[in-house]
Amino acid sequence: MFECNVCTLRCLRALAAEAAVQNRHHSRLLLTPHLTIPSQRRAASTAAVPPASNQGNAYLNAAQLRHQTQGDVIPFDHDRPATEVTTFDKKALRKELEWLADPVKFTEHIQYTLRCEKPAKALELVRLASKTRQCTVAWNHVVNYHMQRGRPRDAFAVYNEMKKRAQFPDSYTYMLLLRGLAGPRVVTSKKPPKTISSEDVSKAVSLYNSMSAPNSRVKPSIMHTNAVLKVCAFGNDMDAFYGILANLPEVGAGAPDHMTYSIILNAIRRNTGYEALKDLSPRQALTKRRQAVSEARAIWREIVMKWRTGAVRMDEELASAMARCLLVSEKLQDWDDVLSLIRQTMQIERLVPEVGSPERQIGHVPTD
């Protein structure tokens, strides 16, 4: 076949075309991006990979690189003020809301955003969602976030904005506000909590009274009452404390329960502490403690009467609160009654005879 010039030329053309195709394939293989990048294989763990590694970026085209660059600018980052929301941020948040039509999923997403310490983004999400849906639960999570971190001013600001956007607070909203005013749930130091300011006490009482108004959508329950009583007790505002107690019914819905009586007994004992009696003389302080013990005994008789009828549940916290009130006194009889209290409430027998019995020798101990 190589004797004819035409056949030889045709054969050479076929070989040249095949070689050209193979050459183009090989050139593409040699220019493959991942082969031009230095090898990053190593024997160490993957934790040593630098976070800013650009491995794989060579595969992206120009449009993908622009999208990746925009994605690196995370909305609501920590470099910008929390109140600054750009047009790009709102556009991204609206896109998120399109995929969060389910109220449960939306609430879970708000919780996740708050766990990531992005309260500004969570607040903007609930603002946008409030235009088209009721999302009271999501607003409650934002309120609870600020209350847990000891920022009641921010929590009340969110609460007021919530009402302006036609998102009606529910019972849990008021519970979060009242419970948060009693003190932050997240303890950041080992120091004891400071006394609640009079401003916080006024906020709690005003909020509780607004719930009791005739036009209120949510009526206060005993849980709300216990929360506001705790705020008044920690704020040393006993006038507001007893003013709220005076309006409670004896029986039925809203009547005092075991937690209410525990708060009352703890408030009585708190008023006999060093901070409350430091400006009094020793005799005046002694009289104050004796009055507190007498008041606690009167309340305990009411508790026992309701306990025997099944209206109040007896628990360890309630019995311990009464025992601590008895230990405030300087009388031996009051101290001895702690053992009788344990026997009465927990059926644990005394290991020593009672004071005044022939078996108990207390002649060497002053009784007063």
UniProtKB/TrEMBL annotation:
<dbReference type="Pfam" id="PF13041">
    <property type="entry name" value="PPR_2"/>
</dbReference>
<dbReference type="InterPro" id="IPR002885">
    <property type="entry name" value="PPR_rpt"/>
</dbReference>
<dbReference type="InterPro" id="IPR011990">
    <property type="entry name" value="TPR-like_helical_dom_sf"/>
</dbReference>
<feature type="repeat" description="PPR">
    <location>
        <begin position="135"/>
        <end position="169"/>
    </location>
</feature>
<keyword id="KW-0677">Repeat</keyword>
<protein>
    <recommendedName>
        <fullName>Pentacotripeptide-repeat region of PRORP domain-containing protein</fullName>
    </recommendedName>
</protein>
